[in-house]
Amino acid sequence: MARYAFLVFSDAVVGKEDEYNRWYNERHLEDVLAVPGFLAAQRFRLTLEDAAAPARYLAIYEIETDDPQRTLAELQARAGTTAMPVSEAFENSAVKTWLYGAVSARKTK
After folding, report:
1. How many CB atoms within 10 Å of residue 49?
2. Are 57 and 11 in contact (CB under 8 A)?
3. Which fold has domain 2-101?
């Protein structure tokens, strides 16, 4: 199976950052990891303000699948359902996503 990195840039609704982070960390990451093919997830916050950055928050998901379109379609199908509720603190219009295929083996120290 092929490996992928799925990058999701997003932001909180103004004034709801704590609620957004609580939902993302305590609920959403687990919901995404329940989708077949998703193996790992980690979130990051922009530390150096940069007007060119797509958003303040980044989630990186590791995926292993032979059909990335099907895997992402399943993710999309679950979004907004009881299997993957979306918080009102999530600024949906700010979301930007990219999928990258691995071109080397994963290395760790």
Report:
1. 7
2. yes
3. Alpha-Beta Plaits (3.30.70)
Where are the chain's structural domains? Answer: 2-101
Residue 104 identity (one-letter amino acid): S
pLDDT of residue 49: 82
- CA 2 remoteness from chain centre: 19
For the record, the structure tokens of 21 come out as 């982070």
Q: Which two tokens stand for residue 88?
A: 């009102």
Cα–Cα dist 35/100, whole Å = 18
pLDDT tens profile 26-69: 999 999 999 999 999 999 999 998 878 999 999 999 999 999 99
Q: What is the pLDDT of residues 70-98, one digit of tens each?
A: 999 999 999 999 999 999 999 999 999 99
* Tokens found for residue 11: 């932001």
Residue type, 49: E
Q: What is the pTM of this model?
A: 0.94
